[in-house]
Amino acid sequence: MTVYLDPDIPFEHLLEDITARFRDAGKFFKNARMAVIFEGRKLSREEEHQVVQTILAACPIQITCILDTDEEREAFFRRIVEEASKQPEEESYGQFYRGSLKEGQRLEIEGDVVLIGNVQAGARILATGSILVIGSLQGAACAGISGRGDTYILAMDMLPTQLRIGDLLLRGTDPAFTGKRKKPVIAYRREEQVLLDFLENFDVSKL
């Protein structure tokens, strides 16, 4: 869903307008799961957070992630949302997390998680499903912690101390990371190995 934001009105008036429009559209959306892209107005991180919270308070929808205008990222996340919408309702779950994890912090999620922010060195993110980090992954990420091997880990800036998918571990010092740091990379499991591919070259049939 694309949300056009008026660039000329005061921010507090913009939030009031969003509340009114999404409240009127509430019956139409009916708890739909959506990726959102904002256009028309440049937002700070705090303003973006306020806009998202305003939409969620006014309308019964689930925002799975926020897309940007980068074609590579947008194409990938649109596919993720489309695949999620095909699943039975009881299986179509996941969470959106906005903010960075600092050293010593730990985030554990039931299902898939989209984190808009960074996972700093010394922090850990764990999920029973897949993990998408729209930022830098410098700490540890563990996907499929319930034993699932069909999960993956994606980061826009792949600099982890370690990755784990199911029961397979790949340390950040592994030669597999050579030439793949500080670029969008996806990690997935194949034949008892954790493999890495650049996002731009990734064949979605591998999932």
What does this structure look like?
Helices cover 23% and strands 35% of the residues. It is an alpha/beta fold and 207 residues long. 29% of the residues are buried. Mean pLDDT is 80; it is low at 84-93.
Percent of residues in helical segments?
Answer: 10-25%
Q: Gyration radius, to the nearest Å?
A: 18 Å
Shape: elongated
Q: SSE order, as H and E?
A: EHHEHEHEEEEEEEEEEE
Summarize the biggest pleated sheet: 6 strands, mixed
User: What is the straight-line distance between the termini?
Assistant: 25 Å
Low-confidence stretches: 84-93
Counting helices, strands and paired strands, the structural category is alpha/beta
Number of extended strands: 14
Measured by DSSP, the beta-strand proportion falls in 25-35%
Strand order, sheet with most strands: 4-6-8-10-13-14
Our count of helices gives 4
Which keywords apply here?
about 210 residues; alpha/beta; 14 strands; 6-stranded mixed sheet; 4 helices
Outline:
This protein is of the alpha/beta class and 207 residues long. It has four helices and 14 strands.
SSE layout:
Layout (H helix, E strand, L loop, with lengths): L1 E3 L6 H14 L1 H4 L3 E7 L5 H14 L3 E6 L3 H16 L7 E5 L7 E4 L2 E5 L7 E4 L3 E7 L2 E4 L8 E7 L3 E4 L2 E4 L13 E6 L2 E6 L9
Helix pairs in contact: 1-3
